[in-house]
Amino acid sequence: MSMTQQAAPAVTTPPASGPKQTDGRTAERPLALRLLARPEIGVFLGALAVWVFFLVAAPPVRDGDSMANILYQSSTIGIMALPVALLMIGGEFDLSAGVGVITSALTAAMLSYQLTTNVWVGVFAALLVSLGVGFFNGWLLVKTGLPSFLVTLGTFLILQGANLAITKLVTGNVATDDISDMEGFDQAREVFASSFAVGGVQVKITVVWWLVFAAIATWVLLRTKYGNWIFAVGGNKDSARAVGVPVTFTKISLFMLVGLGAWFVGMHQLFSFNTVQSGEGVGQELIYIAAAVIGGCLLTGGYGSAIGPVFGAFMFGMVQQGIVYAGWNPDWFKAFLGVMLLGATLINLWVSRAATRR
Question: What is the pTM of this model?
Fold first, then answer.
């Protein structure tokens, strides 16, 4: 009987009135704080502010053709910023991404021209080369344990030198030969560098590819096992390995995704301009990394999204073209980018702390 009396309070119905008793650990955070915890919210607000600013400061931005040009500039950065962002979420970054774009374009152009074959042969050969560079970066990193900074810095220097030396050796010049009259060129250009009309405005196909790739990357991160692996290896690779995450496969495949992005952007450049300058691409890797950081990805890994870098790339394109449309000195472009990068880094630091604060 006494046992029944002692157990009775454990099953009594709680009072219907009065405030709900919670402590700091179980209390639900305010909606605003939960929204700020999303990695893409800060950059979305920043991109919106930059867009409104240039709408006021640079009237030509309001024109449809100008906005199409801004979106085009953003897409060429954004396509590469997506795999770079996934790699950063996985805890690594790639300094060879910029020159990797040019390596891919040079491979396709020189193979096609020198072998006098269909340009699609060069396109697929360039794909294998780009994936091979990504595989080498990832394999060397996981086998040696060296930081990705050192591994990809070495690859950056190798590719930069090889781009110049091999191009001069094969073509006798610092640029590839014009391939616009070769078989398959028109079809490849339709895929990588065509335009289409929307309300009388010509929009580059790269804008569509950019949004498609962003949707795919978002789905992979949020709805697949591979997305969970990316966050896990970026957060703590030892803990991830302990629970069965294939760390080696995930790291190598992320570097290969960067190679895939470099191939696509390289093909766009080749079929847009018919030829490629072998010394280009240096410094672009910092733009891709900056777009990902501005988009909410942390350099320490384990945090970020695919949507954030879309807005980060848009901010880059907006500032780059907005300065021109406003009639300002374009030398200020890099200064604006530096301010945006530093500001985004500080905001990301504050957001990450606020998101984990009890």
Answer: 0.86
Q: Which helix (H) or strand (E) holds 196?
A: strand 195-198
Residue 241 and residue 257: Cα distance in Å, rounded? 21
How many Å apart are CA 273 and CA 270, to the nearest integer?
6
Residues 6+ apart with CB under 8 A from 59: 325
DSSP 9: G
The pLDDT value recorded for residue 45 is 78
- Find all residues with CB under 8 Å of 339, minimum gap 6, and list them: none
Nearest CA among 220, 284, 303 for reference residue 73: 284
CA dihedral 305, 311, 313, 315 (to 10 degrees): -150
Length of the chain (residues):
358
- Residue 137: the pLDDT is 96
CA dist., res. 243 & res. 241, Å (int) = 5
Using CA of residue 182, residue 176, residue 159, residue 74, what is the dihedral sign? negative
Q: Alpha carbon 158 to chain centroid distance?
A: 23
Of the chain, the percentage scoring pLDDT greater than 90 comes to: 54
